[in-house]
Design goal:
By secondary structure, the protein is mainly β. The protein has strands spanning 13-18, 24-25, 35-39, 43-46, 54-58, 65-70, 83-91, 101-108, 117-118, 123-124, 131-136, 150-155, 158-163, 190-202, 212-221, 224-231, 237-238, 246-253, 258-270. The strands form three sheets. Strands 1, 2, 4, 5, 7, 14, 15, 16, 17 and 19 form a ten-stranded antiparallel beta sheet that branches. Strands 3-6-18-8-11-12-13 form a seven-stranded antiparallel beta sheet, with no helix packed on it.
């Protein structure tokens, strides 16, 4: 059972949503819905406004970043304030080399669209800070499995990462969550859902106020629970160092031509109680 209902009233949450019905997105221009598109080269435009599908296209140079992320850094790991996001995306068709993309979707501290990824399939940058979401590394490296998606959770630069392949016992689905179709070479559409949920406050000693919380992140792909990350012990969250996080998508092309389709982005967090 999911711990964060999908039908919260607006007055109970903070959040933002994008269904990609705009005609195009100018780089660096904040939209009224709280998102900003950035692209040094290429473009972000609506491929099919009727059905709501944003098309991220890299056209000029390799190793360039494109992103669609929240202008407002409004999400934070706080006690009593679960966070839930949903994203639907698809790497491009065979001709656009979807295997040559670094991709991330989720919440991340300092999501600056300039240094999120490590080259040669190394995945997310070191020292990501506060983060939870899904990513896939570029192909050609020997560090991570580039054929599948991965789950990541982190705080204070201590991260937990699980490859969503059948060989990983922490992959609760027991199956590969592939990036591309092995027969056609086309990117596969997936619905990604993750929920970060604080589970308890670690009591202070001798009447001292609590300074640490434990939490759990649950990950679903296409409605299937694929992973759980426990932030306990070494991975506990120090309340005072919980940082604000952007939510959205960031990608980097490794070849000159690349495409990724964004179909839906939404993230919400329960409001902090002040009474």
């Amino acid at each position: 059972m999911r711990l964060v209902p999908v039908d919260h009233h607006k007055e109970e949450v903070v959040g933002l949503e994008e269904e990609f019905i705009h005609g195009s997105f100018a780089t660096g221009v904040a939209l009224g819905n709280g998102f900003t598109a950035t692209h040094a080269v290429g473009a972000i435009a609506t491929a099919d406004a009727l059905h709501g599908e944003g098309l991220v296209t890299w056209t000029a140079a390799a190793d360039e970043y494109c992103s669609y992320l929240s202008t407002w850094e409004i999400f934070q790991m706080l006690n009593g304030c679960p966070i839930r996001f949903k994203a639907i995306l698809r790497p491009g068709l065979t001709a656009s080399l979807p295997e040559e993309l670094n991709l991330f979707v989720g919440c991340m501290e300092n999501m600056d669209t300039a240094s999120e990824f490590v080259a040669a399939g190394g995945g997310m940058r070191a020292l990501c800070g506060d983060i939870f979401g899904f990513f896939t590394p570029e192909s050609g490296g020997a560090v991570l499995d580039d054929s599948v998606w991965h789950c990541i959770t982190g705080h204070n630069d201590l991260e937990q990462v699980d490859a969503l392949n059948a060989a990983n016992p922490n992959n609760l689905s027991g199956a590969d969550v592939k990036v591309i179709d092995g027969t056609t070479g086309d990117g596969l559409t997936h619905e990604f859902v993750a929920e970060w949920v604080p589970t308890n406050v670690v009591p202070g000693v001798g009447g001292v106020a609590a300074t640490i919380i434990n939490a759990e992140t649950r990950f679903w792909v296409d409605g299937v629970l694929v992973a759980k990350h426990q932030q306990r012990g070494t991975f506990q969250i120090t309340i005072a160092t919980a940082e604000l996080m952007n939510f959205g998508f960031v990608g980097e092309n490794i070849t000159d031509i690349a495409v990724c389709n964004l179909l839906y982005l939404k993230c919400e967090q329960l409001r902090l109680r002040t009474w």
